[in-house]
Records
---
Amino acid sequence: MNKKSVKDIDVTGKKVLVRCDFNVPQDEEGNITDNRRIVAALDTIKYLLEKKAKVILCSHLGRPKGEFNTKYSLAPVAKELSRLLGQEVKLAKDVIGEDAKKLASELQEGQVILLENVRFHKEEEKNDSEFSKELASLAEIYVNDAFGTAHRAHSSTEGVSHYLPAVCGFLIQKEINFMGGALENPKKPFVAILGGAKVSDKIGVIENLLEKVDKLIIGGGMAYTFAKAQGQNIGNSICENDKLDLANEIIAKAKQKGVELLLPVDSHISTEYSNNGQDKFVKAGDIPDGWEGLDIGPETIKIFEDAVKDAKTVIWNGPLGVCEFDKFSVGTKAIAIAISKTDAVSIVGGGDSAAAIEKLGLSDKFSHISTGGGASLEFLEGKKLPGIECLMDKE
Ligand code: AMP
C-alpha cells in the first residue's frame, strides 16, 4: 500500500480540506480533558501552513445525530488549536453553509479555519454525494489524517475524495507505513500477541495474522475460550461457549500453517471480578468453580517473554489480563516491558494496551502506537479501509 501524502502534492496557495480526528474527551463544562488528538494533528497542519496552503480543517465530535447541538460544537477545539498553533483558528458557524463558504473564500495563504462538526449533518454518515460535493467545493485538495474514522465511508472521510485530488496526512501515513509494512513485508521472526475480553472481537485478526506470523500468543479473557475448548476447567472465567469449535479450528489451523500458538499454562485467579477477592496462582485447567482467571500466571509470563525476545516484528493488541485492576495487570505490564526491550519493529493497537504502555512510561520504546481502535482492528484483519483506499496511489 503506497498512498500519496501531503508531501507528494503541491499545496502552495491552494485551499486544502483536512479531515482530522478532533473527537476529544470533554468534561461537563465542555473543557477538553485530553488534547492528545489535537496535538497529534499539528504536524500535518503546520506542514501545510509552512507551505503557504489555505487550510480548512474538519472533524466530527461525539454523536450529535445529524443536527446542530452546541454540546458537540468544535468551539473548544478551535480555541485549543489557536493556542497550540500560536495563531487564530476561526470556527465556521456551519459546515457547508454561508459562514463556511465565506470564511473559506476569505482565507489567505498560511491561514487556517475549522468547520463545525461534520456530524451536524445526517448526510455525513450516509456518505451523501451532494453533501460530499458541497464540502469538496470549499477546497482544491483533500487530505485525510483521521485514522480513527478511516474504516468508515462517510462524506468527510471518503465521499469528498471523488471530487478532489486526495492524499494522506502524516498520521495516516505513519499508520500505513508501520501496520501496512508489518503486514505486507514483516521482518522475521514476526510475533503477534492478542489479548482482550473476547475471541469474537478478534476472529478476523487471528485469521489474517495466522497467514503471516511465526508465533501467535493468546492471553487475556479470550484464552479461556481456548482452554475450555481443549477440555480444561476454567471455573467462572469469561468464556464464549459458542466459539469453542472455532477455537479448536484456530488451534488446528495454526498447526497446519506451522505457526507456533502459545496459550497460557497458568493463571492468576480470584474469587471475584475485582482487586479485593481472594487470589492465587493455578495451572491452566485447574481453575475451581467459584474462581475466575483474571491474569496470566508467572510461568506463562516467562514463556511469553521468551517468545518475544528475538522477534523482529511484534504486533500487540489487547491486555493479557484485567489490567484495570492493579493486582491483575502484572502480565500486561511484563509483556509491555519485554517488547520494549527488543529491537523489533513494535506496533501496538487498542486503547488498553496503549494505556498500559503509557502508564509504564514506555511509549517512546515502541515503534508505533496506533491511534484508531476499530480502524486498527480492521487494518489487522486485512480489510481495506475506505478512508485510505480512496486516496491516490503513488506511481
Ligand atoms: P479488548 O477491548 O477486546 O482489547 O478487551 C479489553 C478488556 O479485556 C479489558 O477491559 C480487560 O479487562 C478485559 N480482559 C482481559 N483479560 C480478561 C480476563 N481474564 N477476564 C475478563 N476480562 C478480561
Note: The domain at 186-380 is CATH 3.40.50.1260 (Rossmann fold).
---
Amino acid sequence: MHLQSTKTLANGVEMPLVGLGVYKMTDPEETIAAITKAIQVGYRAIDTAALYYNEEQVGEAIRHAGVPREELFITTKVWNSNQGYDRTLKAFEVSLKKLNVEYIDLYLTHWAIADKFVDTYRAIERLYDEKLIRVPGVSNHHEVHLKQLLHSANTPPVVNQVELHPYLSQQPLRTFCTENNIAVTAWSPLGRGGVLTDTTIQQIGEKYEKTAAQVVLRWHLQNDVLVIPKSVTPSRIEENAQIFDFTLTDEDMATLNSLNRNQRFGQDPENFHFDF
Ligand code: NAD
C-alpha cells in the first residue's frame, strides 16, 4: 500500500484510500495552497461539498496541479436545502460549473433529509446513468436510510461517508455496509483533532515512532475505511500521508477498536439540524 493506493469499489471504480478534506477552508488562497501542496505530496483525492463554499478553489487548484484530471478523484455533495429530485439535478449543475470540470468522481447526498433523501438519491442515480458522475453515494446515512435506498434504487449507493474515529468506531454500520458492498469513508477521521491527545493512542504511536494522527489514520486503513483528513498546514498534510511504512499489530488494532465511546464531534444523522 502507498499514498496512491486505491480501493476497488462495488462498481469497479478505483477510489484513493486517502484524500484531503477541505471543510472549513474558507480563505481562498489558503485553500488553493493546501490542495496544491497535497497533490504535490501525492494525494489524488479531494473531498469538498457545496456547503463548504470552496468548490471554485478546488477547481482552480486541480486545474493548475500538473496532474491529469483523470488521475484525480473529486468528491462533492448536494446540500440539504437543495435536496429532492429536480433540485439535486440543478445543484449538481452548479457544482459542476463551480468546479469547472466535466464530471465528478463521487457525488453524495450530504445528509438523509427524511422526506427527500430517496428522491435525492434517484437524481444521483440519473447523473450516474448519464455518466456525469463515476460513483453514486451518500453521506451520514444510517442503516435505516441505507435499507430504504437498497430497496428503492437500481444502483445501490457505492460509498457511505460518515463520522468515524476511535471514539465513534461505527462497527455495526461498517458491518452492514461491508455486507452490502458499500465502501465506508471516515469524515472527521481524527475526530477534528479531538482524539489526538488520547494517551493510549500516543503510547501506541511511540512504539512505531509515529504521531497519534498517523496511528489513527493507519487504524482506519487497516479497518478497510477510506480517510479524508483535513489540514491546511503543509507539515501536517505530509504527516497525514506518511502512514504506509508501518503496520499496527492485531493487538494494537484491538486496543484502538476498544476506545469506542459512541462520541460524536459532529451531528447525529438520526437527529440533526436541517441547515447549519
Ligand atoms: P479531521 O478529523 O480531519 O480533523 C481536522 C483537524 O485536525 C484540523 O483542523 C487540524 O486542526 C487537526 N489536524 C489535522 N491533521 C493533524 C495532524 N497531523 N496533527 C495534529 N492535528 C491535525 O476533521 P474534519 O475536517 O471535520 O473532517 C475531515 C473532512 O471530512 C472534512 O474536511 C470534510 O471534507 C469531511 N467532512 C464531511 C462531513 C459530512 O457531513 N459528510 C462532515 C464533516 C467533515
Note: The first strand starts at residue 6 and ends at 8.
---
Amino acid sequence: MNHPANCIFCKIAAGTVPSRKVYEDDELFAFHDLHPWAPVHFLLIPKAHIPSMAQVGLEHAALLGRMMVLAPQLALEQGCKPYPEGGFRLVSNTGAEGGQEVHHLHFHVIGGPRPWLKG
Ligand code: AMP
Ligand code: ZN
C-alpha cells in the first residue's frame, strides 16, 4: 500500500497536485474524476489518508457520516436531477478484487442523464 507521502489523492487534497475542485472543508475534499463515466462524476475523499473502506473503524464514524450527508448535496449541486427521477450512484472500490486503483479512500459520485460510458 502506498505511503501518504506518495499518495496522489493526499497530494490533491493538499493542493500540490492540481484537480478540478468541487468542494473543500477542513476534513473533506471533492474533485472531478479525470476519466468520467457519466455527465456527473466526481470523487469525495477524506483529507486524512485512510487506504480504503477496509481500514475504517468506529473512530471514523463521524467522518464517514459527514461524507454520506455531503454526497447527495454535492450530487445535486453538480447537476444530478433530484430523487427519484434523477439520483446518482455512490461507489467505493475496495481492494484488488473490488477494483481499487488508488489506495486512498474515495467515493465515486456518478450521475446525470443516461447513457453512461460505464456503469
Ligand atoms: P478506483 O481506485 O478504481 O476507484 O479509481 C480511481 C479513480 O480515480 C479513477 O476513476 C480515476 O479516473 C481517478 N483518478 C486517478 N487519478 C486522478 C487524478 N489525478 N485526478 C482525478 N481523478 C483521478
Ligand atoms: Zn492518501
Note: Residues 8-111 form a domain with the HIT family, subunit A fold (CATH 3.30.428.10).
---
Amino acid sequence: MRRINFQSELRSVFKEIGQIARKLGYSVYIVGGPVRDILLGRSFQDVDVVCVGNAVKLAKVFSRRVKGEFIYRRRYPNATVKWNNSAKVDFVSARSEVYPKNRIGLPRIRRTKDLLIDLNRRDFTVNAIAVDLNPGTFGNLYDPFNGLLDCQKKLIRVLHPNSFKEDPTRIFRAIRFSMELSFQIEENTKKLLNRDLKFLKQLSQARLWKEIKICLNDGSDVLNYLKKFGVLRVLNFSYPGQGFLERVDVGSIQFDVNPVNTLILALIEKKPARCYSFERSFIQQINYVREINNKALRNIEVVHKLFKLEDYSLLFLFARYPKNSIIIENFFDNREKLKPELNGEDIKKLGVNESPEIGKLMKRIIEGRWIGKISGRNEEVDLVERYLGGKDVSW
Ligand code: CTP
C-alpha cells in the first residue's frame, strides 16, 4: 500500500479533519486535484475533502476548531472553510452522478456511502485517486483506476467511454490538463474526445464560456491546443494566428492587461455579436472594436473611439493591427495627458454660448493633445479664442 507523507502543516490539519470525522462516525479522504498535484510534486491551493457522511456538518465542526470562516453552499450541498487568511478546504459528501440519457445537462446527484462510486463519477484517472485521512489508515493511497501509473506515464485517461458525452466540459479539462501538466492525452481517450467533440455544441452558453475562460486564463497558447484538438472548428471559432497570440502576450505584459477577454474577442471575430448571450457591456465593446481598422486608426478622430474601449479591447487592436500598434501604445502611455484641462464651464466663461459647440471644442482639444499640438491650458484657451475669432479650429 502506497502512503503519502504530507508536509508537517498539512499533516496536522488533515489529521484533525480525520479525527473529527471519526467522532462523527464518518470517513474522509482528499481527492482530485490536490492528490494529483502532491503525486506530481506540484504546489496546490485548494484542498477537496470527500466525506462519506455529512460534509457540511464536518465542515462546521472543523471551522469551529480552527476558528475559521464557514461558507455553506446549497448546491450538492457542500461547504468551504477558510482560515489563517490563505488556507482553504472544500468539503463535499461522497456522491454518485447519473447523467440525463438523451440530452447534455447536469447530472442527478445522490449521496453514497461507497467511496468507489464517488471516484467512479470523476473525469480522469489522475483525478480519481484518494488519500485516506482516517485514523489508523492515515495517508494510504486508494487508487482503483491506476491513476498513479498514469501520473508516472504522464497520461490523461478517461474512466469510461461516455465520459466526454456525459460532460463535454471535460473536453476542455483534458486539453487544459494536458497543457498545464505537460501530459499526453492517451490514444483511446483522444479518439473518444474526437468522437464526442460535437456534444460541445449542446452545452449551455454559461457552461461553455465558463470553461473557455478557465482555459484562457492559462495563457494564449491554449488556443493552439484548442485548434489542434478540433474544438475551434466544431464551435465555429476563429483562430487569430500565432503572430496575434504572440503580440497579445507581449502587450498584456507591457500594458498590464488581463488578456482573457482579448482572446474571446479574437475567437468570435467573424461572428455577429448577437450570436452569443454576452453581457451588454461586452457586446458594446465588440461593436466598438469592430468599428476600428487600420484606416480608422490613422484618422485623428479615432482617439474619441479609443476612449470608449476597455483595456482588453485596446490590447485586441494592438495585436490585430501591428502596422499601427504604435498608435495604441501611444494611447496607453498618454491617455491621462489627453484629457482637457478646460471643462465646459471654463469654455462658457471664455464666451462660447451653451450649445453642442462646447462638446465639439472639447473634442478638438483632445485631438490637439493627441497629435502633440496642445500640451497645456494656455494652448487650449488659444484654441477657444481662435474659434471665437471665427477661425477654423479643425486639425
Ligand atoms: N471533476 C470531474 N468532472 C468535471 C469537473 C470536476 O470529474 N467536469 C472532478 C475531478 O475529479 C476533479 C474534481 O472534480 O479533480 C475537482 O474539480 P476541480 O476543482 O474543477 O479541478 P481540479 O482537478 O481540482 O483541478 P484544478 O483545480 O487544478 O483545475
Note: The chain has 21 helices and eleven strands.
